[in-house]
Amino acid sequence: MRIGLDVDGVLADLVGMIIKIYREETGLSIDRSHITEWEFWKKLSMTRQQFISLLIKAWERWEEVEPVEDDLAEDVEDLSKIGRVDILTQRPAATIVNVKKWLKRHNVRYSSFTWVPLKMSKADIFYDVYIDDSPRLAEKLSLTDRTLLLYEQPWNINVKTRKNVIRVKSLDEAVQLLNDVL
Ligand SMILES: [Mg+2]
Questions:
Q1: For residue 149, which of 163, 131, 175, 171 has the smallest C-alpha distance?
Q2: 30 Cα–ligand 1 center, Å
């Protein structure tokens, strides 16, 4: 089994970092529970380009990016007992080096690091199982026979689950589900 594991929103709390920088720059606080849209930056009157710059800035401060869960290393290790775990991440190229440093710092072990440029879709890269928080990927994969374990976040709460799009609240739950399938 090949498992494609997302970084932002699943392993790394990028949104937390974005909220922090946004507060520093504008003095305005965003409550994460209010981020109920994937393209929430539109609500903040940001252009896509401004948002991408903010992403890059957030990952320049990679040492401050918090993990989503405390026991990441262990959870990913458990996943790798079930299948081959690749990091599957879509992001600006300028952030890759810092993301790799972050993964190393948090002892996240993986087989390979697959980068998906912003203009592509992760669905174009074949995995048996994707662990991801993207509502867009949920839409794309729902039409396939591949499985998405949708990592629950406020911005995907409205995604309809189905046979191959299953909501998980933690990596532990993802491990359990995959173990049950085997
Ligand atoms: Mg993500």
A1: 131
A2: 19
**pLDDT score of 109:** 97
CA-wise closest residue to 175 among 103, 71, 102, 105: 71
Query: How many Å lie between the centroid of ligand 1 and the Cα of residue 26?
Result: 25
Distance 66 CA to ligand 1 centre (A): 14
Distances (CA, A) of 145 to 49, 129, 137, 148: 34, 10, 13, 10
Between the CA of 9 and the centroid of ligand 1 the distance, in Å, is 4
Rounded distance from Cα 135 to ligand 1 centre (Å): 9
**Is the separation of the CB atoms in 123 and 41 below 8 Å?**
no
Q: At what angle do helices 14-26 and 48-60 cross, to 10 degrees?
A: 110
Q: What confidence tens digit (pLDDT) does each residue in 37-73 have?
A: 888 888 888 898 999 999 999 999 999 999 999 999 9
pTM above 0.90, yes or no: yes
Which region, left, alpha or beta, applies to residue 2 given φ > 0 means left and ψ of -120 to 50 means alpha? beta
**Enclosing H/E stretch for 149:** strand 147-151
